Amino acid sequence: MLGASIVKSEKIRNPYAPKTTLTTEIIEDARPGIDLKGNPRDKAYKIWDSRGLFLLVAPSGGKWWRFKYRYGGRDKRLCAYPFVSLAEARTNRDACRDLVARAVNGFN
Question: pTM of the entire structure?
Fold first, then answer.
């Protein structure tokens, strides 16, 4: 074709996706009362990983893996950190995503 040009396709980034993936170092640096940017926090805050998985850092010092999905309108708690590692939490998230895709609640 005359006048046609080849345009390189650019990868479109999801604007809602986290800018960095979660690492063990980031998890260990998470402290109650202070977020990762050093701002004071009175409430619990979330550190997002990917595909709905995040770490909830409670003011009491607890860290909980949570998976955000819509089944019954609630976030479900996966388990406590450090009892479950980042890799295990990602595996649990993927298994739960498969169950939710089949319209089965991933947790009791």
Answer: 0.70
